Amino acid sequence: GCMLVYSGNDTSVALAEHISGSEAEYVSLMNQKAEELGMFSSNFCNSHGLPDDNHVTSAYDIYLIMQKLFYFEEFLGIIELGSIDVDVFRGDSSKTLSFTSTNQFLWGTYQLPEGITLLGGKTGTTNKAGCCLTLYVQDENDNCYIAEIFGAASYEALYTSMIQLLTH
User: Fold this and answer.
1) What is the model's pTM?
2) Fewer CB within 10 Å, N or C, the chain?
3) pLDDT tens string 116-133
């Protein structure tokens, strides 16, 4: 939840280490799966997507992976959340941390066009990639779509572009 709702990069490293023993081994599995999915423009160097000169992908490759992920109900349940509470344990003590989604459509800061329902989405922002957003939406005829905007110069430009894309 922290990784998908809040873009918790530390969570992606912890999951990678838990699943594969090391982030490097997990990244190897990521690259194998990417090849299986036909993601031929991608090369992953870490589990979180933060900049690395050799860490690359394309809008089409992100579409391919999102298309696969949208078949998992648990994934859809997480990416539609506006926030998540996580219980953190250390020794005998615990506390609850709250994280808010980075998807501003979920906050109501920006509104989707009439007739479009948000089923979920994922943001991503780096200096090199700019502001990016992939959404899973449904129109008034119950058709589902994956919509992507990459390389926006600002969050305002990102959300304005997504609204324009979904209006047409």
Assistant:
1) 0.85
2) C
3) 999 989 999 999 999 999
